[in-house]
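Table 4 source record.
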Amino acid sequence: MHFLGGSVVALGIFSLRDFRVPLVKRYVSLIPVTLFVIAVALLWEFYEIMIGIPIELNHEFDTSIDLLLGTLGGIVGYVVGESISNLQD
């Protein structure tokens, strides 16, 4: 689920172009997109804690796996978005 969420967040940045939102080219490169995906994943993990999702015995491991999968999903979403963007140009 976190992998898919990371991909959706990364692809969401690319979809802003379809809504004619002006984006600086350097903000739609791998590092800024990945950092944005990590920030969203961290906010989601804090949200889970705040709403009281039961904390498991190994919640540190679970959180680190969630962040890893979200980041990997974001990278895959970036690659897909960049390849679709190159096809449209």
